[in-house]
Amino acid sequence: MDGSFDPARYASRGMGTSGDGLTPKEARTKRRVPLLTQTLRGLRRRKRPAPITPHPGDLPSEQSTSAGKSGALRAGIFGINDGLVSNLSLIMGVAGAGTSRSVILLTGVAGLLAGAFSMSAGEYVSMRTQRETLERLIHLEAHEIALDPEGEREELTAIYVDRGIAPDLADQVAEALMRDPETALRTHAREELGLDPDELGSPWGAAASSFFTFTVGAFVPLVAFLFTQGTTALVIASALSGITLLAVGGAMSVFTGRSPVISALRMLLIGAGAATVTYLVGTLLHVGVTG
To answer: Is the pTM of this model over 0.70?
Structure first.
């Protein structure tokens, strides 16, 4: 299921089904297709940015589209940020309570492991559910193309007409695309469902990326306490974490196109704010655990 898109795999599932080409389970799912597609489109419309129209401007290099297509990349970026901020906040909170170096180390390692496994498991379940839902929609679309190609051709024609193409030309384009089953399925997935069959996301890739990057991020504030303790360790941990937050924020600007300075400072302020709050809470509690 995590491999490349194979239209034949979807079409072959229709064998051994009822007269309409669908199993009872698939028929129930098909009845839910309008709701599923409406939900997906609704999610895409949330927090929609201001409309962007073609306009002149500097374009220093060819734009890369691969950065925004991978769920693993998204999970990686969030992973290193979450790992760093959450474990830094946890360590600062415990350190502020006046605990010993050994307790801080234990807390940091526990936070690293718990967070890494939790993040990777959550990413896997989320991406797996998303992928299976999208594959189900593509599977049902494959059935419809096989059972009612003329109706699907008319749907495709209507889509292109709605986009401003002349009816005669839209009909010719739709007819040409429908001649090849694989091209027809890919086109309907993109135009009708709004999906890219080749970019459904990899659950294992997202989980592995999230686990690794969360671990890296969570390890940064822990390093200082491996070699020193007390105020010195707190200062070093804060400095390392601040530098890493600045680097991650600046690196994110490569994908977002925003100012690297603003992105870096925003990341630093968020992390510093969270760590400061937990340190103050720990100081107020001041349980004084030793070990």
So the answer is: no
